[in-house]
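quick one before i forget lol
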Amino acid sequence: MLDGVKLTFLGTRGNIEARTRRHRMHTSLMVGYYGRQIMIDCGEDWLGEVDDLRPEAIVITHAHPDHAWGLKQGAPCPIHATAVAWEEMERYPVDERREVTPRTPFTVADVTFEFFPVEHSTRAPAGGYRITAGRVTIFYVPDVVYIPDRAQALAGAKVYVGDGA
């Protein structure tokens, strides 16, 4: 725990068949801040499981199956995603849709998120989030080849979590 911020890795598996005891569920991170929780990404493995997790909101990095298909049946909370991701998820029965604009911070449960576009895939543009809660800043990007604005994305970050899958 970092000054009230708790990161819980709910899943770390990409869109592959291989599974192990520690690498079985699709990528998802729960950001906790003084008892409030925000989920980042909700891949297909999480379909039907979101209600049990009870996040205040879900923030999506991109609309690949291992990051967003767990929302195909909707969600009990607001969902934050870019316009490009919403185009891919247009048929998902999500009542509370929030559009994320790159480099425009937004706040959920006293945690501020700022989306940074990254190079990952031409089919599903992706991004990472600069996450600030209290005095702690973290940068999280679960699928990345290159971070164009990495100096700004990582400035002052105490923790960087990235995966070049």
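fyi The chain has a mean pLDDT of 91.
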